[in-house]
Amino acid sequence: MPRKPRPPCSVPGCPELTARGGRCPEHQTEADAQRGTPGGSAYGPRWPRIRRAYLYAHPWCVLCARQATTADHFAESRRSLVARGVADPDAWSRLRPLCTQCHSRETAVHQPGGWASERVKPVRGPGLR
Predict the structure, then answer these.
(1) Element containing residue 72 per DSSP (H, E)
(2) pTM listed for this prediction
(3) Domain presence at residue 86
């Protein structure tokens, strides 16, 4: 039985073949160096501890009362807090506990964008075309 061909590296222009897809070893090393420590938080080294303590103290989603899994920055995103120069954007007063489903829904409503932003059609009022 013939084997499945190896896929090329996912970096445009790289001809290297990979074992399971994704990046070749050279480009994977570059990506790891840019990301920092593997598994490191984009919010910094303090965030995992802050998140864990907050969810321990606030175990239920404020929107649906399921078990909270996400410490959501609310009413402003962390990005906007950092852009404004807020001294402690991860203060408990700026967080709220949410379950994964509620966090995904709230993020889609309040922070549209990302990979699907070009596909989202603008919402129009009734009778408008």
Answers:
(1) strand 70-73
(2) 0.60
(3) yes
